[in-house]
Amino acid sequence: MRFPLIALACAPCFALPALAAEEEAQTLTVYTYDSFVSEWGPGPAVEEAFEAVCACDLNFVGVGDGAALLARVRLEGERTRADVVLGLDTNLTAEAAATGLFAQHEVLDVAWDLPVVWEDDMFVPYDWGYFAFVHEAAFDPPGDFRDLASSDASILIQDPRSSTPGLGLLLWVEAAYGEAAPEIWAELADNVVTVTKGWSEAYGLFLDGEADMVLSYTTSPAYHLIAEGDDSKRAAPFAEGHYMQIEVAGAVASSPNLPLAQSFLRFLATDPVQSVLPTTNWMYPAVTPEGGLPEGFETLIAPERALLYPAGQVPEIKAQALDTWLGALSR
Amino acid sequence: MARRAQPLTLAGIGAAGLVGALILGTAVAVLAEAGRGRLGPADWAALRFTVVQAGLSAALSVGLAIPVARALARRRFAGRGLLITLLGAPFILPVIVAVLGLLAVFGRSGWVSAGLQAVGLPPLSIYGLHGVVLAHVFFNLPLAVRLILHGWQAIPAERFRLAASLGFGPGDVARVLERPMLRSVVPGALLVVFLICTTSFAVALTLGGGPRATTVELAIYQAVRFEFDLGRAALLALVQIALTGAVALAALGAAVPDGMGAGLGRVVARWDADAPMARRVDAVWIGLGALFLLAPLLSVVLRGAPGLLDLPGAVWAAAGRSAVVALVSAALAVTMAFAVAVAVARLGRRSGRAVEATAMLGIAASPLVIGTGLFLLTFPAVDPVTLALPVTASVNAVMSLPFALRALIPAVAAAERNHGRLADSLGLVGWRRHWRATLPAIRRPLGFAAGLAAALSMGDLGVVALFADASSGTLPLALYRLMAAYRMDDAAAAALLLLAASLALFWVFDRGGRGHVEA
Questions:
Q1: ipTM rounded to 2 decimals
Q2: Under CATH, which number does the domain A129-244+303-329 receive?
Q3: Chain A partners of B99 at a C-beta cutoff of 8 Å?
């Protein structure tokens, strides 16, 4: 076994060409979610940048969204062809870690620009964002969930059973209100215009004027501003704080390309990747690139409190929060 | 009918068997992976909601389709053929496009609400059970109209001549000719619409206004994604299959075959429907049907047109892949459907029904469970990405088989009934018999079935999502990817492209089937 030796020798450095000389044109297979690899996502730029330094072939495989990605990896188990899984988030990492499929990462010396301290030893963050309700500039938004519940503002949300932001909202209300969450949901029920399968449907309906606000991200207005030159969208700051989503990647322990996978994880934290994420994934980079954030990001709201459950607590909390949610909205 | 050992009959039984094996086999494969499964009270609630909304949707779709189909059957006007083709469009649209189109008309800021507000009324609220049913009627009314229209067109012109010469009024024509035809066609149409609605998920959730509108398919999503409880997912899929099978057998048992006899296929003239009142009633039905079905399509066209020419190359490539998949899938579906229809016509009533019910299972199969099951079965041997397009084509064929069958089974049965004895006496057997006697008689439903299968395959996301990656995606997948990247305008243009491509495929086959005969 020469891989572990090379891995040890190379872990802190970028001596990839040497590695490649030993092993001819390795292929690194990265499972990720669909929108990451589409030509409008970060995938193409990341592939080009990594292939320029690794002398390897980076092969992205797009699989649904984050939750579908985890389901796929679980289905494949030990036999998986993935070397790296990119696109899980902090709501999925506990379950992902429990599969025993992932190796510990070696990206230890990075100064993360995250609102929370990063301590996970299996998954490496690459971008993050806050969930928020997005509205038209002309609309006067409520200042928190209680305000929203007592107002007649209409909202579009996603089903937590089929959507990542939907699950985020569930945890947001739970983290902000704990015991009082059922009461909040009961009062929110008449503000909810409808619940959609995924983010795309809800956001599409919002743009068509079906509701005052839609559950999305604080960074959504940046897309309209930067890509479309349209500054008519805003995210509503909520006084309770905003729940976070941190997107992560992990290396598959059984991969024959583990050293290469580990260096890819390290590569994710560098400028060539971090600088494309804000305007392709429309999220905050996990490490602010040298040139800073793209122009336009300074207009976004900056929540004063970041809410996030420790990954290990999520599975239990989400099961109970789903029951609350179903109970409140099924009436 | 004499029993002959026919290779095509065996092929038909085989095709139905394959469908059954695929649907049941994948569910069992998922169950085996999990070891065990349990259903909770929420799952039964989902099943109840599924049955209620599907029942209502089926009754309303078919109920409304009868007058529309009758009006279309007895009126001739310029653009009628085009209208019939266009009316089929909602059925082949991907769910997300149809929902956005529907909401552009019936939503809170839609055309209807804008009209209501202009005269000082509150906006329309579409979200709730009535919204689910409205959307399902929008999707399925066109299919029901076409199936029932086929029934009307299958009444030989000679019957109407005879009726006219006997001095029959509209009431007599309805009693003697139309009602027996409806008794044989309506149960099948109800069945198809009911079954389509049982697998609804995104439509039911979005227009149902929330988790009250949880269907079995959504419960399956929850089991796979939220809880990774494959056992429960497989059990839910099996419950859905059992429901389908039971409803299919009941509906097929209720259908009474008609005894219209043979005709020479000449143009039908309707002396009974000449009264001015009847004309006006028909015009109203056609107008209402067209307005209801075409307005949302118009909104799709208006939204998509500006961006159509600027669509990225990847979207056109995806459209090309989708078209190839659609053609392969249509060929498979029609071949299977023809074999099954011949088998059903030849076998006795009981075993014929069993074959037909098995072949119908595809309609109610959960795409997520089929996809997961196929994945589990094939993954150890092959790279799923290389299988994406073949798997998509085959599964789409299986899923559109039931629709093809609804069109072909009555037609093949009639062809056998009407020309079978003549063919027997001429000693026509095997392929020559079908080439000479059966196929010419079923051209129209055959073209319709092929068009439907192609268009459905074009618009269906189905199982491809689990297998595909960026380079092998189909057009619906590209559309979703555009939406996920905030590019709603490009997505709207892709939706228009999808609508146009599906309709074009449908039109080519359907038109080909109608030939030069006035339809």
A1: 0.80
A2: 3.40.190.10
A3: 201
Partner-chain residue, chosen from B214, B228, B484, that has the shortest CB–CB distance to A34: B484
Interface of B with A in 181-240 (CB under 8 A): 201-202, 205-212, 214, 218, 221-222, 224-228
* Distance between CA atoms of residues B221 and B319, nearest Å: 27
Assign domain A3-128+245-285 one CATH number from 2.40.110.20, 3.40.190.10, 3.90.1010.10, 3.40.50.720: 3.40.190.10
Summarised one tens digit per residue, pLDDT across range B492-510 is 899 899 988 888 888 888 8
pLDDT of residue A236: 97
| Domain membership flag for residue B1 | no
- Inter-chain touch A201–B221, beta carbons under 8 Å: no
CATH of the domain at B361: 1.10.3720.10
Shortest distance, CA B377 to any CA of chain A (angstroms)? 11
> Measured between CA atoms, how close is B204 to chain A, in angstroms?
9
Contact with chain A for residue B109, Cβ under 8 A: yes
Note the pLDDT tens digit of each residue in B58-110.
999 999 999 999 888 888 888 888 888 887 778 777 777 888 888 889 888 88
Which has more confidence, B331 or B170? Answer: B331
Q: Which chain A residues contact residue B368 at CB under 8 A?
A: none
Indicate the length of chain B as a whole number: 519
Burial of A317: CB neighbours in 10 Å, binned 0-12, 13-18, 19+: middle
**The pLDDT of residue B28:** 85
Among the residue ranges A102-106, B68-72, B161-165, the one predicted with the least confidence is: B161-165
The answer, yes or no, to whether residue A8 has pLDDT greater than 50, is no
Between CA B470 and CA B478, with CA B473 as vertex, the angle to 5 degrees is 90
B206/chain A closest Cα distance in angstroms: 5
B335 contact partners, CB below 8 Å, separation of at least 6: none
The mean pLDDT value for A22-29 works out to 75
Q: Which of B42, B211, B483 sits opposite A204 (nearest CB)?
A: B483
Q: Which of the four pLDDT bands, split at 50, 70 and 90, describes residue A317? A: very high
3-class DSSP assignment, residue A158 = strand
Q: Containing domain of residue B135, as a range?
A: 7-33+42-514
Per the domain annotation, does B457 fall within a domain? Answer: yes
* CA-wise closest residue to A139 among A155, A123, A157: A155
Residue A10 has pLDDT above 50, yes or no: no
Nearest to B469 among A37, A40, A162 (CB): A37
Inter-chain CB proximity B226 and A154 less than 8 Å: no
**Looking at the DSSP assignment, which residues form a beta bridge with residue A127?**
A247, A285
Read out DSSP for B443-483?
A: HHHHHHHHHHHHHHHHH--TTHHHH--GGG--HHHHHHHHH
Count of domains observed in chain B? 1
DSSP-derived letter for residue A32 is: E
Domain definitions of chain A by residue range? 3-128+245-285, 129-244+303-329
Average pLDDT, chain B: 81
Q: Is B519 part of a structural domain of the chain?
A: no
Residue A20 — very low, low, confident or very high, per pLDDT cuts 50/70/90?
very low
In a domain, B326, yes or no: yes
Distance CA A154, CA A213 (A): 6
Across the interface, do A74 and B470 touch by the CB < 8 Å criterion?
no
User: Do the domains spanning A3-128+245-285 and A129-244+303-329 agree at the CATH topology level?
Assistant: yes
Residue with tokens 């309209």, as numbered in its chain: A224
CA-nearest of B244, B236, B219, B240 to B34 is B236
User: B483 CB near a chain A CB, below 8 Å?
Assistant: yes
pLDDT digits (tens, 9 = 90+) for B310-337: 888 888 988 998 898 889 989 999 998 8
User: How many beta-carbon pairs below 8 A join chains A and B?
Assistant: 152
